[in-house]
Write a structure and sequence with these properties.
Length: 114
């Protein structure tokens, strides 16, 4: 069983990003300490895997790499791709639904873990 679940919309979006980067080999997810709440997600298209990365294949053959130091915080999350239709602000973006999140900062850029 994969440690992270992706919606088809997220996979389609990430694969489009990979197609735009001729050297891209996969999608890497990690977290970093930042912001007013503590942590932020760091999604990235990578051109080579890091030696210790945890690798798995999601649906549609999406190659996924996870920073091993981040795995305990990322285990069981859902990655989705949604359109934010707020008035005057139409954005499409990856969204991370993490059952371990305890709270988010007001701007939504960082989160805390249980």
């Amino acid at each position: 069983m994969n440690p992270i679940t992706f919606t088809d919309a997220a996979v389609d979006h990430i694969q489009k990003m990979l197609q735009q980067n001729a050297k891209g080999v996969g999608f890497r997810l990690s977290i970093k300490k930042t912001g007013c709440s503590g942590f932020a997600y760091v999604p990235d298209i990578i051109e080579s895997e890091k030696k210790d990365d945890i690798h798995f294949v999601a649906q549609k053959n999406l190659q996924v790499y996870v920073d091993p130091a981040s795995l305990e915080f990322l285990q069981d999350i859902l990655v989705d791709y949604v359109a934010d239709n707020a008035p005057g602000l139409k954005q499409k973006r990856l969204v991370f639904v993490n059952p371990k999140e305890k709270g988010r900062c007001g701007c939504g850029e960082s989160f805390t873990i249980e």
